[in-house]
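Dear colleagues,

As part of the handover before I leave the project, I'm documenting each prediction I ran so the next person doesn't have to rerun anything. This entry is a single chain, and its sequence is reproduced below.
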Amino acid sequence: MEKKMFQRLLKARSVVYFKARSTSRDAETDRARATSIYRSIEDALQGAMAEQANLKSSVDEALARSAVTLGNDSDEYLTRDPQDNHYQNLLGSEIAEGERRLNELEVTIRHIQFLKTALVTRFPDFGFGDNIPHAKDIG
């Protein structure tokens, strides 16, 4: 009885056989996976760089406003209106927070660039470059 079952199993398996995909299909699948990662890295990098540029502009604007309201006399702070002091303190806090975030973004951008470099060097045959559209460009 066991012998007959085993023979039927072998017959059934002989009809269904394993077939590997073609080499070109494997390469296409691998390229699609790596390209997806590349696009994600590029989108993250562009987003961080855009945030950095906008924040730098805002910090520069806050610094300019602070300089204008600060005055240029050495003893200006002694006669400054309390409301102006409060405004200076607010600007100072905004500037400090903006500079803190700019420093964080600089580190983050370097890390993302490292990931991009690692991916490009690990898959040199895939020719990553500007010809790969970003997710935001695809629609």
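The helical segments are 2-15, 23-70, 76-79, 82-122, 135-138. The mean pLDDT is 82.

All the best with the project,
I.
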